């Protein structure tokens, strides 16, 4: 699992989706473990922007490790599983999606590498 924490000036690259209000029941259930749904401005690569919703973690999230190393995070991910499946699948899918978007996230890449090494051991 990747935990997004609010940080002044930080940028979060990714995809945005237009969804119907009915989808929020599913998303709110999936993100119930210490996540908040917040409104924020989303800026697209063409410079346009819209108001959107994001889920961010709070420090009281039970899965939040705090100032942990990428190896510690990978170890946590390797042994964690939720109703939506193994956390390793989520992290690996995130890493692939970022690469497909042409985005580089050294933090995610390092966790992915550690996770792969842990799976070999």
Describe the structure.
This protein is α+β, with helices and mostly antiparallel strands and 121 residues long. It has one domain (23-120). It has four helices and four strands. It has helices at 23-30, 70-78, 87-100, 106-120; strands at residues 35-43, 49-57, 81-82, 85-86. A two-stranded antiparallel ribbon has the order 1-2. The chain has a two-stranded antiparallel sheet with strand order 3-4. Helix 2 packs across helix 4. The relative contact order is 0.17.
Supply the key terms.
121 residues; two-stranded antiparallel sheet; 18% strand
Gyration radius (Cα, Å) is: 15 Å
Shape: globular
N-to-C terminal Cα separation, in Å? 21 Å
Helix-strand makeup class = alpha+beta
Strand content: 15-25%
> Mean of residue pLDDT?
85
According to DSSP, the number of beta strands is 4
In the predicted model, the low-confidence regions spanning at least 5 consecutive residues are none
Please state how the strands of the largest beta sheet are arranged side by side. 1-2
- Main sheet? 2 strands, antiparallel
The topology string of helices and strands comes to HEEHEEHH
Helix proportion range: 25-40%
| Tally of discrete structural domains | 1
Summarize the model shown:
This protein is an alpha+beta fold.
What's the layout of helices and strands?
Layout (H helix, E strand, L loop, with lengths): L22 H8 L4 E9 L5 E9 L12 H9 L2 E2 L2 E2 H14 L5 H15 L1
Antiparallel strand pairs: 1-2, 3-4
Helix pairs in contact: 2-4, 3-4
């Amino acid at each position: 699992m990747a935990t997004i924490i609010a940080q002044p000036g930080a940028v979060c690259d990714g995809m945005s989706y237009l969804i119907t209000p009915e989808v929020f029941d599913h998303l709110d259930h999936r993100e119930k473990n210490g996540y908040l749904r917040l409104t924020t401005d989303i800026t697209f690569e063409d410079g346009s922007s819209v108001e959107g919703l994001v889920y961010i973690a709070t420090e009281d999230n039970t899965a939040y490790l705090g100032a942990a190393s990428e190896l510690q995070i990978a170890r946590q991910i390797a042994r964690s599983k939720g109703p939506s499946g193994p956390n390793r699948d989520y992290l690996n899918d995130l890493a692939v999606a970022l690469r497909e978007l042409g985005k580089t996230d050294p933090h995610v890449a390092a966790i992915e590498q550690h996770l792969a090494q842990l799976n070999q051991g």
